[in-house]
Amino acid sequence: MRSPKDARNIQIDITNQCPNRCSNCTRLCGHHKESFFMDFETFKRAVDSLEDWNGVIGIIGGEPTIHPEFERFAGYLSEKRVRKQVDVLRRPTNEFQKYMRHHMSDKRGDAKAGLWSSLNYGYYKHMEVINEVFEKQLLNDHNNACLHQAALMPYRELGIDETKFIEMRDKCWIQNTWSPCITPKGAFFCEVAGALDMTFGGPGGWKIEKGWYDRAPSEFGEQLKWCEMCSLCLNVPQRISTDGRDDVTPGTYKELLRIESPKALQGKVVVHDPRDYKEEQYHTFTGKNDYMDAGDNKRFDQSRSNINPKRFYVVDIRQEKIEKNSVGGV
Length: 330
Fold this sequence. Notes:
Number of helices: 11
Mean pLDDT: 87
Structural class: alpha/beta
Number of strands: 12
CATH class: Alpha Beta
Strand order of the largest sheet: 4-3-2-1-6-7
Low-confidence stretches: none
Order of helices and strands: EHEHHEHHEEHHHEEHEEHHEEE
Strand content: 5-15%
Helix content: 10-25%
Radius of gyration: 21 Å
Distance between the termini: 56 Å
């Protein structure tokens, strides 16, 4: 395991609302009986707590762009973190996927602000603001055939030895390659732990204050209990994201019914019998891209309509006249 201070990104989780209901979502979207939207004061405190941290501050959800104060959040992050107007997507491009990978990918080392989005209507609505603030953008519409590994199959129900579990937990690809996070309930060493706490009514995280991220794994304490509910470090089933169902164990299924999970109540889960579990049939993911990879790691469809212009406006400055034209009419 690693300390949060060694992460490349730290996420601020501003909402659990999302238009998608992907299989085995690490954000557990679809299991929340009630939605949350982080308030602006909490967001400010989260950004300010990372003033002395040198990595990327990310905004994540759910789908962050549908937060009603998204542009206000982006403006504050720009003011405190970026302190300049970034230079991305200033010219029209026919190959947005290629442009994104080259200019706004996880490999960009100088970025200070990042956005993790499903590229829905909210992205298009805020497109100008987004590309004035976020040098780093991880976009995935989940319409592609990407594999999602089961997140809700605890080791105890599967009969995995505790010593072996701890060894696998300490090598968890999520915790070692993804992000610590801040939710409305506090700061967490792992973004999945934060999502589990929000979903299942946990006690909350560490106080959001400067230096919260400067903790060694030996100091994670009670937060490690969320690892015992999570199966992302284990050899467990995987499912195409567009399937829409989650893979769970009977005990987790009961917990989902207890919290009145909409997905569980709608039958959008597959309950596995632990007696049928054979660890050798499965292989856990090992890297940050595996969760989105089913061949070529194509994160979104190039034909995605939300990134295409809806109309053109032709301005005749000489006659001070505006002629409205539909796409293809210019």
